[in-house]
Amino acid sequence: MKVVNILEAMKNTPIDPEVGIAVVKGVEEPGVSIGLAVVKDSIRPHYQKVSDEIYYVIKGQGRATVGEETQDVKEGDVVAIPKGTVHSIVNTGEEPCLILFSTGPKFDPETDRFFPDEE
């Protein structure tokens, strides 16, 4: 069994300049993965071709864009993101926004994260 405390791991995870957030790896199996996004300013617009994704805002607030829709989100909100849909979040609060994310199948940023501004 693998147990990861993502809140503890968050303390040692740097901001990924490509996406603009710290991505804390949680646990993963072939069919699913879970992690934590620490959003200081914003998540760069991106999409996955293989994985569907769910965001759960555990702390803070922001403005989520999924496809053509934009909506304010806060602690307790859950956002569904179908594969192939460009999505991003802008932090609208004073503190970093913490987003627990789950993908299925498991997320691999090296092979399944694409940026529309690079196409």
Provide a descriptive summary of the structure in words.
Strand 1 and strand 2 form a beta hairpin. With 119 residues, this protein is mainly beta. It has a single domain, classed as Jelly Rolls. The model has no long low-confidence stretch (mean pLDDT 94). It has a 5-stranded antiparallel beta sheet. A 4-stranded antiparallel beta sheet has the order 3-8-5-6, with no helix packed on it. It is 4% helix and 49% strand.
Please sum up the structure shown.
The chain is mainly beta and 119 residues long. It has one helix spanning 6-10; strands spanning 22-29, 32-39, 42-46, 52-59, 61-66, 69-74, 78-81, 87-91, 97-104.
